[in-house]
Here is the input.
Amino acid sequence: MLAAAGIYIRTFGPSRIYCAKVFHDMHSTCPFPCRFARLEHER
Here is the structure.
């Protein structure tokens, strides 16, 4: 999985990573450097 993550980052770039959580709810605080709210604005 670590190799797949590295390939994904090299292929698409770090700007395509919004959050490390699999299921992201907007009601709790995220422990990661999260940019998930930005995803809603890009659609």
